């Protein structure tokens, strides 16, 4: 049989509609291919074992008896060290697929199997498949013409213990490890270039396994795709060793990451739409991250659409601002990334320190782009692109007078300096975003002690639910005495006429079996009316809300103000008489009331 090769730059392409669709590559023995695959690699799924045991790569014998699902609790990710330069991550909780993913036909056909007739005998033969009447003298027609096989039902019928939505990795996925990059039973070969020699190397694979493990390959090997007709597929944009690494993960659940290859793995995973691999790469970097790595990866995370890695880097930058701002990597960042960082409401750093770091960045950019020694004249051009996002009103008056106004008056617009002076004289008169303080972000949850006994906590103490009717309160396990803070709660469920309050209070003044606002140290908004409540008094404030609403609370202890947001809409300042220390609080009333806390929420823009 002649071998045909197609070039692929990862994205599967569809042939013109006028071309006839090809049949699967293994035309001579399609049904025996599947039967043989499972009889050889999953003997315990076929009833009668065709192999007594299998040998691992190390040469040790392993029993072929199945592992019962649920026999042990295994962590999501377990990192194992393999060699000196690579960390091996093994996904022990992943399954070969769920019902939807495993419901894959090996061969496309217009015929449909009758589900009631689909049975498997103890010797592994599939019965009930559509078959044609055998004509006399027709020796080419098999006695059982298996045109397509449902992988999930095949396995479950052979082993009732695998009934359910998923198969355990031990009972199913490990059986395919010997097939990794093996020509045995292979029906597709990938060609990828060696990064050092530029030589094209082969990687043997099996369409059935790839289609079952990754949506990308289900699309690539669909009948209408060009690659579905080819025995060899040339991958242009992924080096051989990186492609080999990803395919090994699909076969074994093990991802081996070395530092110099981590970004290449991330890039390939993005192209192959393997989100689980991107999550593992993010975990790998979480263990080694520093200021230089955070700046580098933050930009890469946007390019490779890696949300987990982006959040990891931004959190590190926000928690270690001075390390990052003083690093060479920050000075080399693009303007887009610098703007993302200095816009962050959680970058808790002295504003003058941030200003000086931005000046250093502008000078570094000008020096890098200048070849004639004119960088000293060019850097203000770069600085002008970011200056509006520096919060000058948050600088100290002496910093404004002695440094900004005297040393940098030519690069800082006079309007921003006057705005800063005005803020220090009349804080409430300045509404600009530059006057907003950056927020302290920390993780917290509902308190297990400062709560009513009739409120039940779950979801890691983030969800609070009533178990009886009456006025009940719970506070968070954090106490604020200064700074600016923001949190949100989602009303998961509530009774039609229930009264749910959201706000802040001093836990020392609140009775946990009454509403949080029935004292002088509690401030709240309530559903369904949208009224504001304090010291047993209520006033009109917002519009009605209830189940499904996200309520945000912004507390500024420097101005003693609190404002509320409903589904992202700023309702304005509700109170300006905060005093003492406060904690996030909620009060519930109805038996079905339930709310969930989000302490990591970012505040929306204020109106």
From TrEMBL:
Residues 62-76 have a biased composition (Polar residues). Residues 1-29, 45-79, 113-141 are annotated as: Disordered. It holds the Pfam family SPRY. Coiled coil: none annotated. It comes from the Eukaryota. Residues 186-259 form the BTB domain. Residues 424-604 form the B30.2/SPRY domain. SMART domains: BACK, BTB, SPRY. Residues 1-14 have a biased composition (Low complexity). InterPro entries: B30.2/SPRY, B30.2/SPRY_sf, BACK, BTB-POZ/Galectin-3-binding, BTB/POZ_dom, ConA-like_dom_sf, SKP1/BTB/POZ_sf, SPRY_dom. Residues 49-61 have a biased composition (Basic and acidic residues). This is BTB domain-containing protein. It comes from Percolomonas cosmopolitus. The lineage of its organism: Eukaryota, Discoba, Heterolobosea, Tetramitia, Eutetramitia.
